[in-house]
Specification:
Strand content: 15-25%
Oligomer: single chain
Shape: globular
CATH topology: GMP Synthetase, Chain A, domain 3
Number of strands: 3
Structural class: alpha+beta
Number of domains: 1
Strand order of the largest sheet: 1-2-3
CATH superfamily: BolA-like
Radius of gyration: 14 Å
Order of helices and strands: HEEHHEH
Length: about 100
């Protein structure tokens, strides 16, 4: 199973997200510190989950990092996180131009 799939599975089990995107961004970081020859070291995660309601941005990031501790221990180097509560998605959609 790819790291991308493992990340998606882990986050789904931990947070039951309403929306989840996991994008492997390793190619953009080739040659940088922490970038492995085989890739799968840098990821972008966009997720909306009810469990984030009322949590600060930092608390959300800590919760995701804790859920993915085994991946970090196994070579995951970096995550770019966009974490929202469902109410924030609704507010953003309402504010978006038509």
């Amino acid at each position: 199973m790819s790291r991308q799939s493992r990340i998606a599975d882990t986050l789904t089990r931990a947070f039951s997200p309403q929306h989840l995107e996991v994008e492997d961004d390793s190619a953009r970081h080739a040659g940088h510190a922490g970038a492995g020859a085989g890739g799968e070291t840098h990821f972008n995660v966009r997720m909306a989950a009810a469990s984030f309601e009322g949590m600060s941005r930092v608390a959300r990031q800590r919760a995701v990092n804790e859920a993915l501790a085994a991946e970090f221990a196994g070579g995951l180097h970096a995550l770019s996180l966009t974490l929202r509560a469902p109410s924030e998605l609704a507010a953003a959609a309402a504010a978006a131009p038509a």
